[in-house]
Design goal:
The protein is mostly helical and 180 residues long. It has a two-stranded antiparallel sheet with strand order 1-2. It has helices at 3-10, 24-45, 50-53, 64-87, 98-101, 105-108, 113-131, 135-138, 153-178; strands spanning 141-144, 149-152.
Amino acid sequence: MTAEALEQLRFPIGKFIFDETISAEAVQEQIQWLADFPQQLNALVQDFDEPKRLTTYRPDGWTVAQVVHHLADSHMNAYIRCKLAITENNPTIKPYKEQYWSETIDGKSPVISISLSLIEGVHQRWAMFLQSLNENELQRTVYHPQYEKSMSVKYIIGSYVWHSKHHFEHIHQLKLRSNW
């Protein structure tokens, strides 16, 4: 496989680019997208049996199950980061080693129903919380020490819409390539 083909498998929708000029209406559309994401993900993977859930979406990539577990882990962290941004003054957040989390017993399990339930619950709470925020609150920030920058709640919303679409497309493309 060429490096270009592998890069396309890694980033099927491209890399995240934050639009600093995003309108309030567009942010509300993103929040609604996050609210709707669990149903889209459930529909995508509902007919995956265990062998399909244990298939990797690219060479040296995660299995479908690991992607679903990662979405739960990552989106729980994002929700908490948004709440920290609102309740504290530019707090430093705790990064985590995604790759190591994907290798734990719960991160490798072929059983995805628990993570799908977590995603559904987190997204319901997260969307309810985000919809309550005003423009000033959407500008509040957390500091990410790994990237050495502050990130606004607006930025987090946009990056996790991208993150959802990014991993959804990993699974979707695998499903298309495998003719499932």
